[in-house]
Amino acid sequence: MERIIAKYYIETPYELEKAAAVLAGEQSSGTFVAVPGETEELKQRFAARVEKITPMESVSEPAIPGATAKPGAMYHRANIEVSWSIENFGYNLPVMVSTLQGNLYEITQFTGLKLMDIELPSSYADNFIGPRFGIAGSKKSAGVEGRPMIGTIIKPSIGLSPAETAALVKTLAEAGIDFVKDDELQSAAANSKFEDRVDAIMRVINDHAHKTGKKVMYAFNLSDEVDNMLRRYEYLVKAGATCAMVSINSVGLSGTKKICDQGELVIHGHRNGWGMLNRHPLLGIEFPAYQKIWRLAGVDQLHVNGIANKFWESDDSVVRSIEACLKPLFNQQNPIPVVSSGQWGGQAFETWRRTQTTDLLYMAGGGIMAHPDGPTGGVIALQQAWEGAVKGLSLAQTAQQYPEFGHSVEKFGNK
Amino acid sequence: MERIIAKYYIETPYELEKAAAVLAGEQSSGTFVAVPGETEELKQRFAARVEKITPMESVSEPAIPGATAKPGAMYHRANIEVSWSIENFGYNLPVMVSTLQGNLYEITQFTGLKLMDIELPSSYADNFIGPRFGIAGSKKSAGVEGRPMIGTIIKPSIGLSPAETAALVKTLAEAGIDFVKDDELQSAAANSKFEDRVDAIMRVINDHAHKTGKKVMYAFNLSDEVDNMLRRYEYLVKAGATCAMVSINSVGLSGTKKICDQGELVIHGHRNGWGMLNRHPLLGIEFPAYQKIWRLAGVDQLHVNGIANKFWESDDSVVRSIEACLKPLFNQQNPIPVVSSGQWGGQAFETWRRTQTTDLLYMAGGGIMAHPDGPTGGVIALQQAWEGAVKGLSLAQTAQQYPEFGHSVEKFGNK
After folding, report:
1. pLDDT digits (tens, 9 = 90+) for A154-169
2. Across the interface, do A312 and B108 touch by the CB < 8 Å criterion?
3. Cα–Cα distance measured from residue B156 to residue B369, given in angstroms and rounded to the nearest whole number
4. Same fold: B3-125 with B134-412
5. Residue A172 pLDDT > 70, yes or no?
6. How many Cα atoms sit within 13 Å of A320 on the Cβ side?
7. Chain-chain contact of B250 with A285 (C-beta, under 8 angstroms)
8. Which pLDDT value is given to residue A415?
């Protein structure tokens, strides 16, 4: 019978074998005392199995509190692998998450536990379609080839009217932008009703497409309750929109999958709230595991922060996240990594050097909107940055050859 | 205009006022550079506002990594309050969560950030019904008055067939149990199809109700994708079930609310995954804030761990969680606190002493199923424990007067 394997990074004041066995017991057939009915046959079929324990360093202070340990105890770290038969939960994503990421974080035997990766059996490919559009579909829809999609976020995050937003989109479209998105804080503010914003923006985008053949992709934030999201989705389809944005952590797995399953729009998965799940090195979940869950749900575009971002995340972690999105999962479409946070074009060089890919949605907010030559200059500067980077030019060489990117460097280069 | 207030416990190497201002800016109209369109009028209407800063202790080591701080910096802790106009997101729960719990956890100015509580404006009462059943509806449905509902979890968590599960439910019903639930790991295992389990169990429960007038509440774990949950919900209603269980973190906010909105079944909200969101003292969310979000979604029963539980959570935290559920929110029904984890009746005394309430769903898994006199003895022992506690007897006195509880003490008293 096929099994799902979860890889954890753990810390425990107990023997590693014992702590791992508690995890496996708690998350399958065990409880705190033996109970009638827990037969050998049942255990054989449904018990989680500790597959592998790789001891790592030991430390003298626990990473997170709540363990029962003797004074002076050492805390042992390890990478462990635990497996479950797919007979336990089949192809039910929420129950898979409850099994792999449920009560185990509360177990006193651990002073640290992070889900690092998941290995899915091949039958999952028959039960989950994955991203309908992914990299190829996103780029094709926006008419982009041979370079990253260049995108931006409407800023100020919240407060602009539909007309003001549409005017900005017009400027950006004329500047050659590929992608624009609502901020995750904006869905339907008092002065920007969702439908009004769609009408105003799609008028601009459809006009521009009619004139130029290029349809700018706009990710409208439809995050809300299920029925409202479905209503908004239909509205978007009728208006000729190509993309919808979901704040995946806030909406949750079942709601997000319901939206992905509609299959007509590219789904932009915004991971706001991610810091809560990931920032501690020994609590929560790492992106390689996280992105697999959302790929199964069908998300087409996934945020990964960016090189030298304004947030806490390290470049190494960002590079790992980009690589995770670009690794194959069965024969499914790959989600396009959404590079964002404090980006202005200067990071294109290091991003290219470390990932050697243009299969990115490369987003700049302030980096475009606050460009010295205005948003038009901002879009051009980003295209120039990537052109330079892929050609093998340095940042300085690119700044010299391309005036708009040069102005970016003057304004943002010391950030 | 009404405002929503969020209370955070923060840690920062920066001046408290500066760090708080960054949070407010990031989560409303600001970005990393000033942008055109960010007018004073717009800021006035949509900017988040730092309402209050209460400095706390300073420490020499950061609680979580990722901050940009000078070597030797001190890390200042504070309770802060930030408010947003409801014009920003209205009555959209996912966008409210993205605003109050979104990118802010990734801000480098913080080395710790926890959402402690939320104050909701009164217009929320007109837009969210809250729990349809709550404490009163749950107790009434199960025929319980003047004492906690006594419940148990089917153990082994996973592996029993529908017939085996139903046989156990029969034993428990005859012993006088009020409530039984699926484990969160069990929804539809290979040997326990959801519908088959419903058929087998509801036959027992309906028979028992027919004979005795008492309908045992069974929380069937319908957690899954939205359409499957709705299908299962309908199946439950037709079968005469009174309750459905949702793993709220795994299913997510939109999916859970969709289920609560059906309004015919009591919704048992299982918070597995909670440790990931809460275990670190300076990362994530505290229960007083968390439970409000799920009350707005309409969850009727909410897990709070229990006194002397088998997990990491302290008694103080459990008591605070019970109190949070019992505090009024508008004029809505209160969710019934689900006390569980390592409970066997011995904790009834301390639970009563500290909360003085019987408005609880008091759950014991192994504590009932592994009772020396069998599950029947386990149920009786729990009722006796609560009877003794409410009468003002001590554990020892209750053990002496009531034989089944006495046997519990012999078996579990040293745990």
Report:
1. 988 899 999 999 999 9
2. yes
3. 10
4. no
5. yes
6. 12
7. no
8. 54
Q: Which residues from B are below 8 Å from A160, CB to CB?
A: 37, 42
Where does B3-125 sit in CATH, by number?
Answer: 3.30.70.150
**Bridge partners (DSSP) listed for residue A115:** A8, A285
Q: Identify which of B266, B260, B174 has the alpha carbon closest to the alpha carbon of residue B218.
A: B266
Closest CA to B359 of B147, B130, B137, B131: B147
- Provide the 10 A C-beta neighbour count for residue B145: 8
Q: Do A185 and B38 touch (CB under 8 A)?
A: no
Average pLDDT over all residues of chain A: 95
Of the partner residues A92, A158, A277, the one whose CB lies closest to the CB of residue B46: A158
Count of CB atoms situated within 10 Å of the CB of A282: 18
Give residue B357's pLDDT.
98
- Rounded Cα distance between A338 and B8, Å, is 29
Estimate the crossing angle of helix A374-391 against helix A162-174, to 10 degrees: 40
Q: Residue B120 in 3-state DSSP? A: coil
User: What is the tens place of the pLDDT at every residue in A95-125?
Assistant: 999 999 999 999 999 999 999 999 999 999 9
Alpha-carbon distance A133 to A139, whole Å?
9
Res A300 pLDDT > 50: yes
Interface contact A188-B369, CB threshold 8 A: no
Q: Which residue has tokens 């036959």?
A: B203
ipTM > 0.95, yes or no:
yes
* Amino acid at the residue B232: R
Domain limits, chain A: 3-125, 134-412
The CATH number of A134-412 is: 3.20.20.110
In this predicted structure, what is the pLDDT of residue B367? Answer: 83
Task: Choose, out of A41, A86, A123, A158, the residue to mutate when testing the contact with B (most B CBs < 10 Å).
Answer: A158
Tell me phi and psi for residue A336, to 5 degrees: -85, 125
Say whether pTM exceeds 0.95. Answer: yes
CB spacing of B251 vs A252 below 8 angstroms: yes
Alpha-carbon span A174 to A216, nearest angstrom: 10
Q: Which of A64, A107, A156 sits opposite B280 (nearest CB)?
A: A64
What the block records as the tokens of B315 is 């008694």
Partner-chain residue, chosen from A37, A101, A341, that has the shortest CB–CB distance to B160: A37
**Is it the case that residue A213 has pLDDT exceeding 80?**
yes
